[in-house]
Amino acid sequence: MSPARQQQTMKPVTAAKKLGIHLPAAPSEFRDAPSISRSELGRLMSTPPAWLTALREHGPHPRDVVASRLGVSIAGLTRGGLTEPLTTEEITRLAQDPPQWLLHERVTYNRVRAEEERVAARDAARGSRSAATGGAD
Question: SS3 sequence, the chain?
Answer without folding.
Answer: CCCCCCCCEECHHHHHHHHCCCHHHCCHHHHCCCCEEHHHHHHHHHCCCHHHHHHHHHCCECHHHHHHHHCCCHHHHHHCCCCCCECHHHHHHHHHCCCHHHHHHHHHHHHHHHHHHHHHHHHHHHHHHHHHCCCCC
